[in-house]
Write a structure and sequence with these properties.
Layout: H1 2-16, H2 22-31, H3 38-47, E1 50-54, E2 60-64, H4 72-83, E3 84-90, E4 93-98, H5 103-113, E5 118-123, E6 127-132, H6 135-146
Antiparallel strand pairs: 1-2, 3-4, 4-6, 5-6
């Protein structure tokens, strides 16, 4: 019950304010009486499939992106091309290096695309690891993603 209320509030907040960071989102939630940790916010962002997109002011902000959105691939391509420095792979693991602080946003956007080759992803500050189902699929994904950069 609390989770669904928090999710609804998060969607309200990002609809009303240009939220650039998880910290900003956490502070807005706390100001509205919700108790949450950074880890909770991170899970909520993934659950709600929020992605960062470039606003007209030149700053990135969280937006809701439904899986069926026709803008999903456009938003992903824009975020990906402007944030990724390099893409490589070893065996079935694809490694993406991003600008500092952008790995989680790129990873969340990548997760929202729902590539069938991907088993799972993990993101740090500037690095994303993608586990693929096979080395061949990792090579294929790497080639596809390099076309976006």
């Amino acid at each position: 019950m609390m989770k669904s209320r928090r999710h609804a509030k998060i969607l309200d907040i990002i609809g009303e304010y240009p939220i650039e960071t998880q910290d900003e989102l956490l502070n807005r939630l706390k100001a509205d009486g919700f108790k949450a940790t950074q880890a909770t916010i991170s899970r909520d962002i993934k659950d709600l499939r929020l992605v960062k997109t470039l606003g007209s002011d030149g700053k990135y902000r969280y937006v809701s992106a439904s899986k069926n959105s026709t803008d999903m691939r456009t938003n992903f391509s824009s975020l990906f091309s402007s944030s990724v420095n390099s893409i490589d792979f070893a065996q079935n693991i694809v490694v993406i290096k991003t600008l500092s602080g952008m790995a989680q946003a790129v990873c969340a956007a990548l997760d929202s695309i729902d590539y069938q080759a991907v088993v799972g992803t993990i993101a740090g500050d500037d690095t994303i690891f993608i586990a693929c189902r096979s080395a061949e699929l990792a090579l294929s994904l790497t080639e596809d993603l390099k076309k976006l950069v």
